[in-house]
Sequence to fold (351 residues):
Amino acid sequence: MLETKLITFKNWVSENGIIDKRFEYVNQKLTYYFDEFLDNHRALPMYEDYFNAITKCNELKFDCFTEVEAYVKLYFLERYRRFSLIFVDLIPNRIKINKEILMLDIATGPGAAMYALNDVFNMYKIYLEENNIKNDITLNIKYIEQSTYFREFLHKFTEILNLNNLDEKWLYKIPFHFELEDDYIKIHSNINIDKGYYDFQKPKYSFNLIVSSYFFTDINNLEYFGDSIIKTIKYLKNNGRMIIIGANAGNNVYTKIYEELKTKITQHNYGTKKFIGNCRLEFTKKYTFDTQEDEILNSIYDIRFNYIVSDLIGIKDKQEYNELILKLNKRTINVTELLGFIRYSKFRKKI
Ligand SMILES: C[S@@+](CC[C@H](N)C(=O)[O-])C[C@H]1O[C@@H](n2cnc3c(N)ncnc32)[C@H](O)[C@@H]1O
Fold:
């Protein structure tokens, strides 16, 4: 067992600003990704998908690339940041690492949890080395994802992250070709958990960490995937942790989802614990989700939306961009005007 104190690693991370440096790196590479791959033909459909991704995320099938890119634009950095903070908080004490950390990400989408764990794991290795603590810990990640377009994103983005990166310490080892299953429902196949059949089987994998983020987004899919959840828990090592992430616990839909998850899990003699995080504060000081309009308006303060605006408008229009941001900061622009502006700029830039 590696003897380190949680507070020490956490302090080291914050003293070094290392988590912010990684965020900036990933951020820059994501911008590069969009500059490189977002061609004129794809720009407009992606723009439409972007708004669908805000308003009806649950209905998206991710069966085309523009939908996936819109989702990435909107949610990747936020999820990556949130997972980084969570992992720094949990490693090494609450997520124990003896020799290996083996993580499963259910419905990984663009893989934010995988990239974040990759980074935090590397931070932890550097931290151990700097403290002369010998170790040979390794990281091994598996995922489940049904969308081939998300898997294609994982492939491209991992290559971009590693492109021109000469520092071995920060390489991304994301298993884009090696998903565990494509469909989460297959995880329980014909195994009858209630009869204890599964318990006599030796699990194929033994994870110390299983994560799932914004996958259980309505009560119906919880019903549908109920057995799979229990089966997945049985893949955990002793002292392993499953982390399920979703929206604000105060949100009506999610309150029911979290309660239902708790009921399902505790029925099988596992314990649950609810954490209410405030990771959002890392991004912005002002951020509420009372109405759809607020969501769009307030998210302008958030890095992800700033990104979209700045990159649609482009450097040439810097003055206009500054004026727009000024107006937004003063709240003198309404959503329609904002969307119109972006749409107009998009056409002007691309055509
Ligand atoms: C809202 S996204 C969440 C993605 C990611 N976990 C995140 O937090 O950004 C839902 C993901 O579930 C995937 N998905 C939906 N049904 C699935 C299934 N039956 N098996 C595997 N993946 C599925 C979708 O393709 C999509 O990547």
Observations:
- The pocket of S-adenosylmethionine is lined by residues 57, 62, 75, 79, 107-109, 112, 144-147, 150, 183-185, 213-215 (CB under 6 Å).
- Residues 190-202, 278-317, 339-351 have pLDDT under 50 and may be disordered.
- Residues 2-13+43-347 form a domain with the Rossmann fold fold (CATH 3.40.50.150).
